[in-house]
Amino acid sequence: MTFEPENDATAFHDFEHAGWQRAAAHYVSTFGTLTAQATEPLLDVVTIAPGARLLDVASGPGYVAAAAAARGATVIGLDFSRSMVDEARRRYPTITFEEGDAEALPFEDDRFDAVVMNFGLLHLAQPDAAIHEAFRVLVPGGRYGFTVWARPEEAVGFGVVLRSMEAHGRTKVGLPDGPPFFRFSDADECRSALSRAGFTGLAVRKLPLLWRLPSAAALFEAALHGGVRTSAALQAQTPDALAAIRRAVLDELQQYAQGDGIAVPMPVVLASGTKE
Ligand SMILES: C[S@@+](CC[C@H](N)C(=O)[O-])C[C@H]1O[C@@H](n2cnc3c(N)ncnc32)[C@H](O)[C@@H]1O
Q: How far is the CA of 251 from the centre of ligand 1 (A)?
């Protein structure tokens, strides 16, 4: 099955690509410590054992690929951002990282025992195409797993920033239209997208991650520079609005002070399935 780009898919894809090229420099010190926490549960649901052939799609700095290699898997990390691929190669020089697109994987059918995507799906113009592609490159019996953030009511870091932006700034800032950021936070949506692609043996559960940062200001900086959509929306605010949003974020995060910094709940949805 091939996917024709939807109306705005190309514009959104290019916007995300440009965004990740910029954000790569900030990502490791902002979201990286958080996303890396999902690595082991993600590898567990796709049952990575020594010798397994794993594809880590949207590999970013390479956390999942590195953890799988440490389990003895043969790993390829794939990301469409050259800056991310360079970052991953610098950090893990013995692992193969390639530039390529999740929506059109540059691999033949039936090539991998497992495919994973840690926090990639919510950045794609055509996430369903990526799920079908994962299915295509898996061997029969192969396992697929992905993670996304829970809804902003639960993933507090997003909730606080988005609420503050609604209250003190503009949420419509002319970004290219993309699929809803929290679409796959819904377990039923995960199940139906996976089963449409042909997966069976579906499982969806939540992981209770905690984002520890040195300060509330560090979380605001992460939102401002470490991602794409939220970062672009914040950067499009007027200086006054941005200052007001920042104040509101810092105020609301006071309740999450812990030790020398903050600890903010950021639960994650972990979904998986098998290609029979
Ligand atoms: C939130 S980061 C996740 C990185 C990493 N998996 C982790 O666990 O931290 C999202 C990654 O998806 C990549 N990405 C976004 N759209 C992509 C696409 N269409 N094809 C391949 N990679 C993509 C970005 O370049 C970025 O590295």
A: 31
